[in-house]
């Protein structure tokens, strides 16, 4: 595939990737399932030079008192550098991530966030689906290909971002931190155990029927921007082919070798879905 020859696209083992892609193309859409992370994978890292909001940042950017924003930004400044530090192992980072999510969610519970505020918070936010994401969603939907969005962000924000900037289709299944609202629509906590960037291997989706129900879909495309995202499809056991695509958005020079050693394809500092759309359209072309 021509698109894999671009200078910002790195392929670890070309022969392996070509073999996997040839199988996916030959098997076509009926055998395919897709698993994607949300923040900085389906959404952009930057847009017109500005860093874009993650799900949590959407809540920080508007609607709640200034002191909430200040406290949340302090947490982000402390922990984001740890999340993306190429010199720390996942085991070393994990306790800090648990701390970050716990503190962020406890902080949020001190403020009156209501369900009704979410629409405008998302509309006024800097969260942006990648260019080409609408086409990506549309083609998976029109070919009945299941898409699992597995995110350490906030599920309610994800639904709102997709509904506002594209279409929330019934082939999409979102596993994330969903807000627990009381009967008045005010946040009282989160519905299940914390999903952070490095525990996507131990989440309930892996004990659910999700992957077993898709066991006839033996080819899986996985997309993420964090090394923790590689664990998202651990529950899929009957796979014949798996292709992993990593978006490397920041600290490219120091992290590239590590990303190439983990992901089949690494796409650097690219705010579009072009490479993925190209791969998907090749698989769909076999219909
Ligand atoms: P993801 O799994 O959809 O990529 O979402 C996780 C991202 O959320 C991760 O990159 C860190 C980010 N994050 C914030 O920006 N602010 C926060 O308060 C928390 C807890 C996470
Ligand atoms: Mg992410």
Automatic annotation (TrEMBL):
Subcellular location: Cytoplasm
SUPFAM superfamilies per record: HAD-like (SSF56784)
Gene3D superfamilies from the UniProt entry: HAD superfamily/HAD-like, Pyrimidine 5'-nucleotidase (UMPH-1), N-terminal domain
Entries under Pfam families matching the protein: UMPH-1 (PF05822)
Keyword hit for Cell membrane: no
Any one Gene Ontology cellular component term annotated for this protein: cytoplasm
Swiss-Prot/TrEMBL GO biological process terms: nucleotide metabolic process
Annotated catalysed reactions: a ribonucleoside 5'-phosphate + H2O = a ribonucleoside + phosphate
A molecular function (GO) term: 5'-nucleotidase activity
Protein keywords: Cytoplasm, Hydrolase, Magnesium, Metal-binding, Nucleotide metabolism, Nucleotide-binding
EC code: 3.1.3.5
Entry similarity comment: Belongs to the pyrimidine 5'-nucleotidase family.
Cited NCBIfam families: HAD-SF-IE
Protein name: 5'-nucleotidase
């Amino acid at each position: 595939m021509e698109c894999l020859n671009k200078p910002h696209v790195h392929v670890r083992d070309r022969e392996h990737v070509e073999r996997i892609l040839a199988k996916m193309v030959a098997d076509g859409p009926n055998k395919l399932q897709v698993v994607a992370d949300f923040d900085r994978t389906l959404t952009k890292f930057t847009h017109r030079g500005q860093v874009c909001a993650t799900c949590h940042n959407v809540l920080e950017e508007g609607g709640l008192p200034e002191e909430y924003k200040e406290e949340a930004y302090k947490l982000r400044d402390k922990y984001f550098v740890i999340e993306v530090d190429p010199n720390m192992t996942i085991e070393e980072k994990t306790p800090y991530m648990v701390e970050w999510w716990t503190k962020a969610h406890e902080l949020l519970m001190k403020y009156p966030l209501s369900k009704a505020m979410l629409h405008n918070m998302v509309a006024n936010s800097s969260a942006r689906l990648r260019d080409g994401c609408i086409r990506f969603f549309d083609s998976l939907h029109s070919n009945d290909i299941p898409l699992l969005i597995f995110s350490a962000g906030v599920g309610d924000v994800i639904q709102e971002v997709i509904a506002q900037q594209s279409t929330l289709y019934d082939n999409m299944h979102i596993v994330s931190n969903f807000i627990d609202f009381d009967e008045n629509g005010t946040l009282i906590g989160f519905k299940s155990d914390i999903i952070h960037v490095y525990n996507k291997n131990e989440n309930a989706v892996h004990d659910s029927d999700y992957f077993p129900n898709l066991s006839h879909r033996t080819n899986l495309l996985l997309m993420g921007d964090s090394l923790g995202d590689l664990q998202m499809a651990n529950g899929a056991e009957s796979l014949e082919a798996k292709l992993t695509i990593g978006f490397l958005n920041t600290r490219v020079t120091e992290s590239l070798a590590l990303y190439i050693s983990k992901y089949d394809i690494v796409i650097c500092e690219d705010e579009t879905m072009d490479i993925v759309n190209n791969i998907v359209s090749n698989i769909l072309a076999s219909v």
